[in-house]
């Protein structure tokens, strides 16, 4: 075949590859997280400056990794990265890690965070932000009840005429998670007792309306110093121990520690600043929430929540060296260099936003213009080939 006809054939092949690249961009204009590709041409020479060129070829198909537009979905498992980084998924069929900007995730029936191909979304367990990511999954096992053993009481027992007592209630839980109301009353203020400048208050406690004998309290009086601070003599760390076993029986809480170290006796209104206790009822799994920065939290019917972990991000020495997998995700190659794993907002990584997705970065108008130009290149090369055939035929007819 003559050189010019071979060149024409190479021109047709290159234009065809470029058309395929642009058409692929156009059909993926609505594909979540898709990164547009571009065909790069290179001229071919035999090596001598005295000879005409030997045609054209596609040097490479490159990717544009610029971010796409933000699509709001209001689905908390839909995630978008603002800035650098890619999501990490584990392809079960190939047993390989893959990387993508497509954050269209769901939680499957087994509690795993997965993408549309059922590949596991990778991340770090609660408290970890680096290392090798593992599949993120939610344990739907019910939360066990936890009996109450500590109560914090932050109150002010001020000096107000005709206000000589104050009552507050705190919810406590027994060993099977049943709820009980522990009612605590402060009364009987005595000034200059037990020493000059000091003030003494009585404490009485009942559980669900049943009085607790004073003998079940490590002390039934508290004393404040002249400056209004708690006198902790006889109250280690400012606590009073209450034995509830007599009322709750075998399902009881043997000992509850009431921490009054923050209590004061300042002049003014008597008030409960804050009262809370630990412990919890049992809880059935209710739902999962994925928040900004990729935090995954399991929520339970008892109002408690448990942090599961964080979605991992990945970056490479050369992102342009990534190869495309048959799932549309990207695969690590030698050209991409080593991978670095991290989480949202840490050094070198962008931020994850929940409730939206990253759209394709394809500019359809630009791609249509490119296709027109590539079509012209194809037609021109085809005309050269047609002309070459006609010349060859004319020579044969001589």
Automatic annotation (TrEMBL):
Keywords: Bacterial flagellum. One of its GO terms (cellular component) is bacterial-type flagellum basal body. GO terms for biological process: bacterial-type flagellum-dependent swarming motility. It is found in: Bacterial flagellum basal body. Residues 166-279 form the Flagellar hook protein FlgE D2 domain. Residues 81-123 form the Flagellar hook protein FlgE/F/G-like D1 domain. Residues 354-398 form the Flagellar basal-body/hook protein C-terminal domain. InterPro entries: Falgellar_hook_FlgE_sf, Flagellar_FlgE/F/G, Flg_bb/hook_C_dom, FlgE/F/G-like, FlgE_D2, LlgE_F_G-like_D1. Belongs to the flagella basal body rod proteins family. This is Flagellar hook protein FlgE. It comes from Photobacterium kishitanii.
């Amino acid at each position: 075949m003559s050189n010019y006809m071979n060149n024409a054939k190479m021109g047709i092949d290159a234009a065809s590859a470029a058309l395929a690249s642009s058409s692929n961009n156009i059909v993926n204009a609505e594909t979540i997280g898709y990164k547009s590709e571009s065909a790069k041409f290179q001229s071919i020479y035999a090596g001598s400056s005295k000879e005409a060129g030997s045609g054209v070829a596609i040097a490479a198909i490159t990717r544009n990794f610029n971010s796409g537009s933000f699509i709001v979905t209001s689905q908390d498992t839909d995630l978008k990265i603002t800035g650098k980084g890619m999501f990490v998924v584990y392809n079960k069929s190939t047993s390989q890690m893959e990387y993508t900007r497509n954050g269209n995730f769901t939680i499957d029936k087994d509690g795993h965070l997965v993408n549309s191909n059922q590949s596991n979304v990778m991340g770090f367990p609660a408290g970890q932000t680096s290392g090798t990511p593992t599949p993120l999954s939610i344990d739907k096992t019910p939360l066990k009840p936890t009996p109450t053993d500590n109560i914090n009481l932050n109150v002010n027992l001020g000096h107000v005429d005709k206000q000589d007592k104050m009552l507050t209630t705190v919810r406590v839980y027994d060993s099977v998670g049943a709820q009980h109301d522990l009612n605590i009353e402060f009364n009987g203020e005595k000034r200059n007792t037990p020493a000059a400048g000091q003030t003494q208050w009585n404490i009485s406690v009942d559980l669900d309306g049943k009085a607790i004998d004073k003998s079940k309290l490590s002390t039934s009086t508290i004393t404040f110093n002249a400056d209004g601070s708690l006198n902790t003599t006889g109250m280690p760390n400012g606590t009073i121990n209450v034995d509830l076993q007599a009322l709750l029986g075998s399902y009881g809480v043997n000992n509850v520690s009431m921490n009054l170290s923050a209590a004061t006796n300042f002049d003014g209104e008597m008030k409960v600043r804050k009262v809370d206790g630990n412990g919890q009822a049992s809880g059935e799994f209710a739902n999962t929430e994925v928040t900004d920065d990729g935090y995954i939290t399991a929520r339970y019917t008892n109002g408690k929540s448990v942090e599961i972990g964080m979605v991992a991000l990945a970056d490479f020495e050369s992102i342009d060296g990534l190869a495309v997998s048959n799932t549309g995700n990207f695969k690590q190659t030698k050209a991409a260099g080593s991978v670095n794993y991290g989480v949202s907002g840490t050094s070198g990584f962008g931020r994850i936003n929940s409730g939206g997705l990253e759209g394709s970065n394809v500019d359809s108008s630009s791609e249509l213009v490119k296709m027109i130009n590539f079509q012209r290149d194809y037609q021109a090369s085809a005309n050269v080939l047609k002309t070459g055939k006609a010349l060859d035929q004319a020579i044969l007819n001589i």
